Amino acid sequence: MPKTSLEKTRKAIVKKKGQIDAIHEFSRDSKRLHRAAARDDKLVKVASARRKADRPYLNRAAFFQEAVKQNDLKPLELSAIGELVKEYVHQYDEELSDLKKARRPGRPASTREDLLKVKISSLQKEYENGFLLPEMTTEESVMLLDRFEGSWSYLTNLKWVKLSEDGRVQPSSFPPKGDH
Prior knowledge:
Strand content: 5-15%
InterPro entries: Tma16, Tma16_sf
Order of helices and strands: HHHHHEHHEE
Organism: Apiospora saccharicola
Family: Belongs to the TMA16 family.
Radius of gyration: 24 Å
Shape: elongated
Largest sheet: 3 strands, antiparallel
Strand order of the largest sheet: 1-2-3
Protein name: Translation machinery-associated protein 16
Pfam families: Tma16
Number of strands: 3
Structural class: mainly alpha
């Protein structure tokens, strides 16, 4: 694992001054250590936010990878792909209905229920405009999808298409540029 800037800064200060028992609160060295710690915290937060943003596409690729494996690694027909997309879009419907049933009459929706509604509606809207998914109609693309091991960097090796609800297929690039 790479060294953090805090470790490097601490090492540089020890190298310059020798073993440090205490640093004055407002000294230059304490300010350097504070800046290094803040920089490390910021990098951790940015990396965490990035992983959280990437997770839906990783889950999507894994879902379609599993579907291809269930089809014995054979290319899928467009109608079968459409059914898989519908299944993916409506995967939270059962959980949403369970939450609605569990809620007492007259009570507001829970946070989880609201999040599921937003997620379902955004997936449905994406499907109407063009659902981004790995290309699964050729032997080569199915083999590439089968080799997907769950990393973000591998997703760029796959061919991606947008499938709209009316059956139109358009080639697309990955990662998406925020057009949906």
